Amino acid sequence: MRSRIVLGDSLKVLRRLPAESVDLTVTSPPYNKRKKNTGWLVSNDSYSHFDDHLPEETYQREQICVLDELFRVTKPGGSAFYNHKIRWEEGTLIHPLSWLTQTKWAVKQEIVWDRGLAANMRGWRFWQVDERIYWLYKPVDDYLIGEELQSKHAKLTSIWRIKPVPRRDDHPAPFPIELASRVIFSVLDSTKGVVLDPYCGTGTTLTAAKILGHSYIGIDISPDYIKLARQRIQDSQTESQLVEAECAIHNVGRSYKERRKGDVSWPFGPRGSNSNGQK
């Protein structure tokens, strides 16, 4: 499939894409933070050509529709990685699983992104430094487990300590290219595929996909972000070292399967023994 970026509403554009044409989605939608929910360190969360201020029921309904369209365009066995966060409205916790479990996807894993930085430093609760990344899976023949990750990827655990991108004037909520690269490299590895981002913003996912040798499709409602994304992809070599550094940490001496065959290098001793090597 030809790589491209499409200007338009995500849901409307997704409905025009052919079924089962995408291998992997990596995306982070607007969070519906609403104007009153900016923090002390985040005084302006305004997007170009989009008002992140919807009634919560409307927002969740739209997200379900987008996610179900993503399911349709994804190949069986394909995945979507959906970055979001836990929010509070007038003291009531709003968890992304409240709408994710209403979609057609199987929720394979919840990954904690430890940003190490809080946007709101008030004392109503412990400072929130985490966001969530949901691994959504499209089963093959109702087999929910899917294929196993290679050990060099799986060892990175379900807590990702990746520093956020410093805030910029051109976009209020960019995520690190290392995060997108980790997802793409872990899931696709050396198999070439089509990577989609229906809220592509300034092109983080698309740039990572290009550097890693994949085709990409980006969608965004803002012509300003589309312009920035196209330029960023054109200049992708300036970010290749960040992607290469991320890929370099995906390594392991021996696989899990090799270690559990009684190899003494397995940290708990031979299979079937305790930590002292005794039966």
What would your notes on this structure say?
By secondary structure, the protein is α/β, with parallel strands linked by helices. Helix 5 (177-188) crosses helix 8 (240-248). 27% of the residues lie in helices and 20% in strands. Mean pLDDT is 87; it is low at 38-44 and 266-279. It contains 9 helices and 10 strands. The chain has 2 domains: 4-248, Rossmann fold (3-Layer(aba) Sandwich); 255-279, no CATH class. The relative contact order is 0.17.
Write out the CATH superfamily name of the largest domain.
Answer: Vaccinia Virus protein VP39
For the CA atoms, what is the radius of gyration?
20 Å
Whole-number tally of structural domains: 2
Decide which structural class fits the backbone: alpha/beta
Coarse shape? globular
The topology string of helices and strands comes to: EHEHEEEHEEHEHEHEHHH
Q: Can you tag this structure with a few keywords?
A:
alpha/beta, 279 residues, disordered C terminus, 9 helices, Rossmann fold, two-stranded antiparallel sheet
